[in-house]
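Blinded run. Sample ID left blank on purpose so nobody reads anything into the name before looking at the predicted structure. Input follows.
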Amino acid sequence: MRVIDIARKMAVPTLAWVQDSGEYGAETHNAGADRTIYASEYLRQYFRSSAPVRNVVHPSFEAPDTPLAALPAVPTVLMVNPIQEKGSALFLQLAEMMPEVRFLGLTGWRRPEWVNQPHPGNVICLPRMESPASAYAEASVVIVPSVVAEGFGRVPVEAALHRRPAFCHRICALSESSGEDRNLLG
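Blinded prediction complete.
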């Protein structure tokens, strides 16, 4: 039995938090909660045909918990979650084109596919971190070249909080979360 079914039996109001437009987002959205929080306006619109009357948009992100660092001495590009569907091909192409620039790939969902394959020598794969603040501190710029529909662009928001410009693909919620100083690709 699902938690929402138990809550209904006990007459407890329910709240759903929809974070993506994929299978899990659809399952959460379709669970029939009394209220729904969407991580972006894009997601609210994506599910608009069946969105509950009472819903709100509230993104999630991590604010820096340490003083902001000065820009690194060596120009450095950061990509969070550098896997294929998040645009790692462009990340690696840029690294090849700019051998004098350091490229950091911060492991996210899973270990990047390219780690055990030949890749440019200026690319470093960072392990998954509880807090990405130190990775942002090492970056001059952040890229978000995602090639899949993003329900919310957390990385551009975190980059802005760490005072780092983020360059994002012009798809789905990435343009929404990039803020007014949009640096959009494509």
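Unblinding after everyone has recorded impressions. The mean pLDDT is 80.
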